Amino acid sequence: MFILGLLIIVGLFVFRSIYKVTQDDRRVDEKLRVRNYITWGACIIGGLLVFFSLLRVVPPGAVGVQVLFGRVLTKATLSEGLNIVNPFVDLHIMSIRTQAYTMSIAYEEGQVKGDDAITVLTRDGLEVKMDLTVWYHLNPDEAATVFQKIGPDYIEKIVRPAARTAIRNITSNYQAIEIYAEKRKELETEIERQLADDFNKRGIVLERVLLRNISLPPKVKNAIEAKLEAEQEAQKMEFVLLKEKKEAARKKIEASGISEAQQIIAQSLIGDRGRAYLSWKYLENLQHLYTSPNNTIVIAPYDKNFIPLLQIGK
């Protein structure tokens, strides 16, 4: 566009130098008017083309990397929106939005069609397949350097191989049962830590690593599940035994308390005071029987010290 505008302006000067009007011409006014129209039209069109060639729009969520005559301007990255640039600059748009790179066993789930899961060896020599998703984005301040040193295809050159290497190196420090069960989150954190370091050195910001699926050989998986089930059952039995021990201790304390209470009561019932208490308790129970609506006749055994009580139905 810039070159076209310049050509129009240059052509205008050529036209004016060729298209000359003299006083001897019969149609002087008409020729002058034509020349003026062409001059103004060419100036306006050429000027607009030159002006608009200076304007570049960078879309949202991206930055513009400027390349001038084969040299990357590493300190002149353009932000999103309208920018005024050198018309001779080639502008390359690079996304800085969050991107996801998935490696999965599913056929069309990841960037690579087919089985793209990561096959790794654990510390105990077992082969494990893992589905992994990496969330990342390009560092806006490093976009020009990434374009210069790595290129626009940094995903295939950096993200994919770095992720696969990190997960293979770190998984080799764990046993299969650990990454399948209690240390899965720890493994994910270790992968994130190593990947973050690798990415930062190359102008890429790691957001998160998602360890989505872990596939073990069927026999190994069944053995691990059986072992975990046995461990859970053992823990359950330990809980039951502990509960029974506590219940036995409680009953022992309760029985001891009852025994002591009985001894105290037995001691208190010896002698005249004990007999007087029993007589009072006897009369109290008779009173309850007497007032009960369910009883028609109350026959109380007696000795020489008591009077029999009889109640005839109302």
Automatic annotation (TrEMBL):
The chain crosses the membrane at residues 36-55. SMART domains: PHB (SM00244). InterPro entries: Band_7 (IPR001107), Band_7/SPFH_dom_sf (IPR036013), Prohibitin (IPR000163). The keyword Transmembrane helix applies. Keywords: Membrane, Transmembrane, Transmembrane helix. It is found in: Membrane. Coiled coil: none annotated. CDD domains: SPFH_prohibitin. Its main location: membrane. Pfam families: Band_7. GO terms for biological process: mitochondrion organization. The keyword Transmembrane applies. Residues 53-228 form the Band domain. One of its GO terms (cellular component) is membrane. This is Prohibitin family protein. The lineage of its organism: Bacteria, Bacteria division WOR-3.
